[in-house]
Amino acid sequence: MPAIRRFNPGPDTTMESGSGHIFILSAPSGAGKTTLGRALREEFPHIRYSISHTTRLPRKGETDGVDYCFISREDFEEGIRLGHWAEWARVHDHYYGTSAAFLYREIALGHDVLLDIDVQGTRQLLKHYPDSITIFIMPPDLAELKQRLELRGTDAPETIEKRLTAAEEEIKQRHIYRHIVINDHLPEAITELFSVIRQYI
Question: Does domain 22-198 have CATH number 3.40.50.300?
Answer without folding.
Answer: yes
